[in-house]
From TrEMBL:
Family label: Belongs to the SAICAR synthetase family.
UniProt record, GO biological process: 'de novo' IMP biosynthetic process; cobalamin biosynthetic process
Catalytic activities: 5-amino-1-(5-phospho-D-ribosyl)imidazole-4-carboxylate + L-aspartate + ATP = (2S)-2-[5-amino-1-(5-phospho-beta-D-ribosyl)imidazole-4-carboxamido]succinate + ADP + phosphate + 2 H(+)
Span of domain SAICAR synthetase/ADE2 N-terminal: 7-234
Annotated EC: 6.3.2.6
GO molecular function, a single term: ATP binding
Name listed for the protein in its UniProt record: Phosphoribosylaminoimidazole-succinocarboxamide synthase
Length: 238
């Protein structure tokens, strides 16, 4: 597959059209690191390749479990071939343990195990800082077509969480929370898109609660690449 034109560049990836097929795109993972709505920026050599490998492994697992995804195949260390879809402008955040913005907003002590899986929506708009929105906001702003679509996104979020929570528990990791995105393909199917990686998830070591994700960059903990490498090692371990 041949890259044709870069159609989008985000915080963690570049998206390219494909010369041979207008229904496919090439996703190129970057080494860039950003936090706090890109107010903090950095770079970690090899991070893009690690995220590509981690996300590919997770998407393959989810596909085996019946989740429809946009991933077609891995092309290189930093590139994926994906189905072209219209991204729903919502970040779907799934939470199992309180931390980050949830703790700050509601005063819930970090590390508190939530009584049930919490699913939140954030409107994808960098200029607004990706604000938290409720169901009525989503419908009012035409971010989805119907309440059924919102229910579908919530159901998928919880289903993906159920699969991954058990998977990572078996790898000695707590899946604290994660952000996912969905798109609609040409046939109207809702597909899991974007990526699932330490850039978009919080992983804590099951024994020590050591942070194994982008919080190491956010909080200046260091050893970002080593943490991502350890997550990949555990994912691939038998």
């Amino acid at each position: 597959m041949t890259k044709s034109e870069m159609i989008y560049e985000g915080k963690g990836k570049k998206m390219w059209s494909v010369a041979e097929d207008s229904d496919l795109l090439i996703a190129e993972f970057k080494d860039d690191l950003t936090a706090f709505n890109a107010e903090k920026r950095g770079s970690e050599s090899g991070k893009g390749a690690l995220n590509n490998k981690i996300s590919t492994a997770i998407f393959k697992l989810l596909k085996e479990k019946g989740i429809q995804t946009a991933l077609v195949e891995t092309l290189s260390d930093t590139e994926q071939l994906v189905k072209k879809c219209k991204i729903i402008p919502l970040e779907v955040v799934v939470r199992n343990i309180a931390t980050g913005s949830l703790s700050k907003r509601l005063g819930i002590k970090e590390g508190t195990v939530l009584p049930f899986t919490l699913v939140e929506f954030y409107y994808k708009d960098d200029a607004l800082g990706d604000p938290l929105v409720n169901d009525e906001h989503c419908l009012m702003m035409d971010l989805v077509k119907s309440e059924n679509d919102l229910d579908r996104l919530k159901h998928l979020g919880r289903e993906i969480n159920s699969i991954l929570f058990s998977f990572f528990a078996n790898k000695g990791l707590k899946l604290v929370d994660f952000k996912i995105e969905f798109g609609v393909d040409k046939d109207g199917n809702i597909l899991l898109a974007d990526e699932i990686s330490p850039d978009s998830c919080r992983f804590w070591d099951a024994k020590t609660n050591e942070k194994m994700d982008k919080d190491r960059f956010r909080q200046d903990l260091g050893n970002v690449k080593m943490a991502y490498e350890e997550v990949l090692r555990r994912i691939l371990s038998e």
